[in-house]
Design brief:
Helix 9 links the parallel strand 11 and strand 12. The chain folds into two domains: 113 residues, 3-Layer(aba) Sandwich (Rossmann fold), CATH 3.40.50; 123 residues, Hypothetical Protein Tm841, Chain: A,domain 3 (2-Layer Sandwich). The protein is built from ten helices and 13 strands. 44% of the residues are buried. With 275 residues, it is an alpha/beta fold.
Length: 275
């Protein structure tokens, strides 16, 4: 049986096509644990994060968590958040080794997406598409690797407190952004967070997101926008895209637990194809 398994930073608890499962990341706030799964109360988690005066943290799936998702499959495609941002990829690779020891006939490909959220989901979509077209395991790998070079990720952050607390961003920059109500735009670059713009006001930042997409080579391909309680700005960005490219395939969805932890309220993450 074929199977796609991702960690929950894909923002996908349900996925159509190839049988699918996900390994949950954990978010801890004031000693309280939030599991990134279909039962998560996202608003409650975000409220807790915004009111805490203590540190918060995240934890990746364990090797055992991954192994439990592999069971019953003999052709497995595993997609993780960037290995430079989380230990999820390392845990999945350890699970791969253990699973192959017990099931030497199985085929497993663990993919470091070098992204998160919608970028991961676009990789999953491509694997599903290639499988439906009848390609074999090695062909799917090669074609997916080629496709990943055409997938870009950018994001808007209305707050960067959690990124700074997790050591992903300079704390002085985070403090300045919070005090001045500046919105930060960033991109995924070689698997790490690359801040490239700071703008006063959400409206300007949304417009600059579209400009960034165009600068990176977007020309009407697939776009996936995941937002954190901010459908309004997601729709505005979609409007910029479809005004210039009326036939663009644009889908808006929501960030789940892990991505909401980092993007924070009113943030969003955009995955898109370039030429």
């Amino acid at each position: 049986m074929k199977k796609i398994v991702a960690d929950s930073s894909s923002n996908q608890y349900v996925f159509p096509g190839i049988p699918y499962d996900y390994a949950s990341l954990q978010i801890t706030v004031d000693g309280r644990n939030f599991t990134d799964d279909k039962d998560l109360d996202l608003v409650e988690m975000i409220d807790a994060l915004e009111h805490t005066k203590k540190s918060s943290s995240t934890a990746c799936p364990s090797t055992g968590d991954w192994l439990s998702k592999f069971e019953g499959a003999d052709e497995i495609y595993v997609i993780t958040i960037s290995g430079k941002l989380s230990g999820s990829y390392g845990s999945a690779k350890m699970a791969e080794k253990e699973y192959l020891e017990e099931h030497p006939e199985a085929k497993i490909w663990v993919i470091d997406s070098r992204m998160t959220g919608p970028g991961m989901r676009m990789i999953m979509d491509k694997i599903n598409e290639l499988s439906a077209q009848g390609y074999e395991f090695e062909e799917i790998k090669q074609k997916t690797i080629e496709y990943m070079e055409k997938v870009k990720l950018c994001f808007l952050l209305a707050s960067v407190n959690n990124l700074a607390n997790a050591g992903r961003l300079n704390k002085l920059l985070a403090k300045a952004i919070g005090v001045l109500d500046i919105k930060m735009l960033g991109r995924a670059k070689e698997g790490v967070i690359d801040p490239f713009g700071k703008f006063k006001g959400q409206k300007r930042a949304v417009k600059e997101t579209f400009i960034e997409m165009m600068n990176q080579g977007y020309d009407g391909g697939k776009v996936r926008i995941d937002h954190v309680l901010n459908e309004k700005d997601a729709e505005t960005l979609k409007g910029y895209i479809t005004e210039k490219f009326p036939d663009a395939d644009v889908i808006i969805d929501t960030c789940k637990g892990l991505c909401s932890y980092y993007a924070e309220r009113n943030g969003y993450i955009v995955g898109y194809e370039v030429r």
